[in-house]
Write a structure and sequence with these properties.
Belongs to the class-V pyridoxal-phosphate-dependent aminotransferase family. SerC subfamily. InterPro entries: Aminotrans_V_dom (IPR000192), Pser_aminoTfrase (IPR022278), PyrdxlP-dep_Trfase (IPR015424), PyrdxlP-dep_Trfase_major (IPR015421), PyrdxlP-dep_Trfase_small (IPR015422). Catalyzes the reversible conversion of 3-phosphohydroxypyruvate to phosphoserine and of 3-hydroxy-2-oxo-4-phosphonooxybutanoate to phosphohydroxythreonine. By secondary structure, the chain is an alpha/beta fold. It folds into two domains: 111 residues, Aspartate Aminotransferase, domain 1; 240 residues, Type I PLP-dependent aspartate aminotransferase-like (Major domain) (Aspartate Aminotransferase, domain 2). The chain has nine helices and 14 strands. It has a seven-stranded mixed beta sheet, with helices on both faces. It has a three-stranded antiparallel beta sheet with strand order 11-12-14, with helices on one face. Strands 1-13 form a two-stranded parallel ribbon. A hairpin with a 4-residue loop joins strand 6 and strand 7. Helix 2 packs across helix 6 and helix 7 runs parallel beside helix 9. It starts with a strand and ends with a helix. The model has no long low-confidence stretch (mean pLDDT 97). The structure holds pyridoxal-5'-phosphate. The site of pyridoxal-5'-phosphate (PLP) has 11 residues, from helix 3.
Length: 359
């Protein structure tokens, strides 16, 4: 079986070069005689991997010393709760922008820890757009403003940030490292790894150091951001293999020319796919063009009864996991950093052929 183009939203395709390197190092990492999975997380070898991953991420995102880079466990969903548990301490509320399914989940979990103020929502537009920032009802005395700049399910992305004095907490799970960002504009950035960073099992959390003072001693130690920072993310055994793979992905990204270079490729990939969808009456994407995601491209077929045939034929053509999220149906192509332009071309060719055969 040869490798196929994998459009899964996550766990997602990893760069082939990364998988090959991991394979070559699997039995004997750099002469250690063991794989990374088998070595102590306190060993000099693993500590060097952790330090390398951190240093590469800092270079790639130009993260300055005002920020701490943490490797956290439990998935981004854990941070939906962990963030309010740490950051809302001493505050009455936290503000949330509601732009889709993942914002909604973050809101649900935060409600267990603080009063949630939804400052704007595109729910009435079926999450096909982003509320005008000038209309947001921000409470500048809240603990922070939470946003999800790329809604993986709805395929909605925004790059600008609302004007506020509040620390901005951003779930960048499905967009981190795909485009240039100014980290200094954020209080916290967090991202589950299994899209643009590596395998599932680790969450990147970039937190402004002054916010660590909000973490209360009453929190479970493993949840306490200040404690995690003080212990270099090593309160307990970290997900060593996931961190190692993340380091290899960061190394690969540096070799591609970094975030700016991959962003240019991502723009070309997304444009080609959206242009094709827009040129056809057979396929459509419901998102307002200014907010279309570069990473997750949902689309529907004019004739819904052809969906299962589309999925069957696309799988057979080596185009894997094009089904939309179970909550919304339709199709979705997730085209993260590791998806080459050739994968987009193969998808467009297939879609064009399918339309000719069945349209
Ligand atoms: N946030 C976003 C934007 C996501 O896309 C996802 C998963 O797809 C999550 C959070 C949840 O991540 P996890 O499964 O790591 O908890």
């Amino acid at each position: 079986m040869s490798r196929v183009y994998n459009f899964c939203s996550g766990p997602a395709a990893l760069p082939e070069a990364v998988l090959k390197k991991a394979q070559a190092e699997m039995l004997d990492w750099h002469g250690a005689g063991v794989s990374v999975m088998e070595m102590s997380h306190r060993s000099d070898e693993f500590m060097s991997i952790l330090a390398s991953a951190k240093a590469r991420l800092k270079r790639l995102l130009d993260i300055n010393d005002d920020y701490e880079v943490l490797f956290v466990q439990g998935g981004a969903s854990t941070l939906f709760a962990q963030i309010p548990a740490n950051l809302a301490n001493g505050y009455d509320s936290a503000c949330f922008l509601d732009t889709g399914a993942w914002s909604t989940k973050a809101i649900k979990e935060a409600k267990r820890y603080t009063n949630v103020k939804v400052v704007g929502s595109s729910k009435e537009q079926n999450y096909t757009t982003v509320p005008e920032f000038s209309t947001l009802e921000l409470d500048e005395s809240a603990a922070y403003l939470h946003i999800c700049p790329n809604e993986t399910i709805g395929g909605v992305e925004f790059a600008d940030l609302p004007e506020t004095t509040l620390p901005i907490v951003a779930d960048l799970s499905s967009t981190i490292l795909s485009r240039k960002i100014d980290v200094s504009k954020y209080g916290v950035i967090y991202a589950g790894a299994q899209k643009n960073v590596g395998p599932a099992g680790v969450v990147i959390c970039i937190i402004r150091k002054d916010l660590l003072a909000r973490s209360s001693d009453e929190l479970p130690s493993i949840w306490n951001f200040a404690n995690l920072a003080a212990n270099d993310s090593m309160i307990n055994t970290p997900p060593t293999f996931a961190i190692y793979l993340a380091d290899l992905v960061f190394e690969w990204l540096e070799a591609q020319g970094g975030v700016e270079a991959i962003e240019a490729v991502n723009i070309r990939k997304a444009k080609a796919l959206y242009d094709f969808i827009d040129s056809s009456d057979f396929y459509s994407n419901p998102v307002e063009p200014a907010y279309r995601s570069r990473m997750n491209v949902p689309f529907i077929l004019a004739d819904e009864s052809l969906e299962s045939l589309f999925l069957q034929e696309s799988e057979a053509a080596g185009l894997r996991t094009l089904a939309g999220h179970r909550s919304v149906g339709g199709m979705r192509a997730s085209i993260y950093n590791a998806m080459p332009m050739e994968g987009i071309e193969a998808l467009i060719d297939f879609m064009r052929g399918f339309e000719q055969r069945h349209g």
